[in-house]
Fold:
Amino acid sequence: MCGNNLGPEGVLELWNALEHNTTVEELYLDITGITERGTENIVNCLSKNTSLKTLTIVGNDIGEEGRRRLRQLQQCRPELRIIANFVDDIGLLQAYLDWVEEIQADRDQMESVKNADALLSVLRGLQVAGEVHKAENANKAKELQMKITQLLETIKG
Structure:
């Protein structure tokens, strides 16, 4: 579902479905337009769902209250891995680096406003991330930030 703006109705339908789902183990909601208010539904839903093992929710404007709710969910469901920050996962950083390199190789992809908006969301997410304690993640985050900035500058120029 990455990169698809689900909208309030779509998100609500997703949470209602997940509340009783017993098969989905990983859910990637990167850059889907989920807001701070939407995290309340996430917590309610995933407090009841026991099958989900990984939730990736980076690139969304979930705010401090949303982050607090996700931390509470993590305490209630310690077996659920929540990735709410781009720099929390080296694999995620590498996947986004690969995506940026793919766009660099095929400039036609930048014609999509959706891709440009997604790149800006990633950039904002990296800036919000703050200090990174794992050196490898910090280096990848800086590299990703630099490559996105360069790519966006070449598009403007």
